Backbone:
């Protein structure tokens, strides 16, 4: 996975590559998809709720774009069983994994404990608002495709903070990196990418006469 999917697709951060090497992806994957845990595709996370995990290549590029440094406070939205949170914690971040389903959150706690991962707190709350706490984050990772990114999430970025997500429709979507600078939000496109849709970030239909 590291040599065939990450290195060949411009994931060059050596610490991140080490994290992918050391953290076993398969234990975070639903038992029914263990055989394809390391394939370059989305798979179902452990927990029985249907939460999807991003492909290794897409996840690697997104975490790299988040530019996570040791000591950063990171919000991991729709983190499933905790794989992305474990990778970011391995980079030295203090990670809050946010799920909206209590059963999925409990599965994440169990899996992270089994994997001996430290530095991750699991929380339950509304995904689109970034949870219930009024906390600022240095980086926010959204594990899925969003039709819209709520202002409430962008307001949770600290000065210099980065939010990374897949944005767009099922037909056309790209990874976008939003950066907060003195209260202003800048945006750049990283690459074309697909990912599992997150209903919490669906665009509200507009009434047209």
Residues:
């Amino acid at each position: 996975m590291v040599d065939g999917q990450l290195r060949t697709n411009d994931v060059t951060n050596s610490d991140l590559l080490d994290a992918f090497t050391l953290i076993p992806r398969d234990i975070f994957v639903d038992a029914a998809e263990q055989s394809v845990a390391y394939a370059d595709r989305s798979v179902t996370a452990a927990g029985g709720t249907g939460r999807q995990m991003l492909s290794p290549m897409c996840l690697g590029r997104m975490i790299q774009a988040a530019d996570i440094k040791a000591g950063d406070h990171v919000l991991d939205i729709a983190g499933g069983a905790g794989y992305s949170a474990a990778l970011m914690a391995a980079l030295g971040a203090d990670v809050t994994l946010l799920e909206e389903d209590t059963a999925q959150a409990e599965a994440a706690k169990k899996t992270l404990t089994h994997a001996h991962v430290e530095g991750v707190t699991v929380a339950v709350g509304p995904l689109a608002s970034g949870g219930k706490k009024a906390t600022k984050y240095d980086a926010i990772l959204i594990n899925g495709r969003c039709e819209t990114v709520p202002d409430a999430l962008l307001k949770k970025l600290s000065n210099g903070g980065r939010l990374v997500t897949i944005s767009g429709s099922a037909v056309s979507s790209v990874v976008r990196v939003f950066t907060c600078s003195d209260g202003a939000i800048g945006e750049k496109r990283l690459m074309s990418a697909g990912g599992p849709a997150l209903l919490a970030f669906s665009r509200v239909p507009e009434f047209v006469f």
